[in-house]
What does this fold into?
Amino acid sequence: MSIERFLDNSISSWMAGDGEHSDIVMSTRIRLARNLNGYRFPLAFTEDEAHKIDQSVSATLLDANEDLEMNFSSIQIKDLSELSRQVLVEKHLISPKLANSPMTGSALISDDEAVSVMVNEEDHIRIQCLFPGLQIQEAYKQADTIDRVLEKELSYAFDEQFGYLTSCPTNTGTGLRASVMMHLPALTITKQMNRIVTIISRLGMVVRGIYGEGSEALGNVYQVSNQTTLGKTEEDIIADLQSIAEQIIQKEREARNALLKHSANTLEDRLYRSLGTLSYARIMTTEEAAKCLSDVRLGIDMGLIEDVDETILNECMVFMQPGFLQQYAGTTLNTSERDLFRAKLLRERLQKGEKTKTKGENSYDV
Amino acid sequence: MICENCKQRPAKVTVTQVHNGEHFERHYCEVCANSLHPFYVEYKHDPLSLHQLLTNWFNHTEQQPMQQVQKKVPLECEACGWSIQRFLDEGKFGCASCYNSFREQLPTVFKRLHNGNVTHVGKAPGAFGEKLAVKKRIEEIRLQMKEAIETEKFEEAALLRDEVRELEDKLAAGGEETHVD
It folds into this structure.
């Protein structure tokens, strides 16, 4: 399996838009952090250690392809161009930390891109499962299966008091970070997000904008995840996140209904203006594109906009990012060229029925 | 060049943003620059990073100044040479043995990070899992034993006591041989 398919194909299975509550929950992510006995953590280890860890983890997982009924491809990060790394980061298949690591490290990615095992990121092993919609249990089950396969062959760093030992004390214990990516436009428009963020942070959970920097949430997309990893079982962490996610979904639905009831015309006008901008604009910054995509997606979810498919937000948020645009263009682009290209890409995406393939080998499937 | 934001006034301020390791330059007029980026502060680290929090906690919780605290604590991890000071500075451990080296200090840190929790209760890898399961079983039996004694069911209590002994022997013999369902 070649790396090209992971780079060219902008659609991962998590963007498919199915799964429960997929009108609000875009995706669910589970991450398990694990380390091996006998080697220092990546922050302190040598290249020799890095190499040995990479070899044994990769070999163990590739050997288990049959047992797992999955097919993993191993990608050496060092072998990738800077642009290729950026594309994998933008698809959430690897982290920026792994992409920029000077040491030997790799990513083992399943064919459907739902599972990615990073070797020598902040910890020796990071198992990540990305599922569409709200599927916390399912994603955890998948991660747990892979964890069990690895622990049979590898000796994990574990302590009876502290649990799984990780490089960062915020992950110690279960090493589990469960998160849901939610599209919350109505709560944002009605200015309820600040209040919700405050309440959730008191419950051992964190909310942050996933694409924006700091607290700014690009495209009204927020990530809710557990903060606590010690003193709670995996099942409790998952159940708590599930319950909070369900409550936020409920609040978002109420806010959507309230908007429709009290300001339907203003709302419809705003959403259609955004559709117009996406369909015709010639220059499009990331910020404006994210805002318009969020509006259009809201329009689709509320039945106000009918002839656009609902995967548009999930997909376009990924492929309008700098790395993808350049991959698509087949050349490097400066900021203003990217804005032109982004506008072009979005226009094409919105034109129904027309082929959206470019010349040459770079293409993206819709 | 005109301002990217208002597209009216001439651009006089260049704002450089770093996102995913990539530098973006934006050109704004003074009016827009002030409203979009009111603070000209360059952060060397995250605005409020973990290591800052860790350092602050230690300073607040320990009544003595930092130097005195350091004297009581093992200064370095034997396995990797990571010092407690380095742990506080970077907010990260150097290796798994650091947990053992700094064991005494860690509950203070974990309490703050994990809602007051200091002990792992989740799953454990194979060998550990079996050991832990045995220990848990022993505790359960002890509780049953206590109940049996209180209700004067001494024969049952004796049986339970034998079961505990057997399990304890297994634990002492080494975790590998114990198999508990």
Observations:
- The CA atoms of residues 16 and 202 of chain A lie 33 Å apart.
- Residues 352-366 of chain A have pLDDT under 50 and may be disordered.
- Chain A touches chain B through 50 residues (CB under 8 Å).
- The domain at 1-17+29-173 of chain A is CATH 3.30.590.10 (Creatine Kinase; Chain A, domain 2).
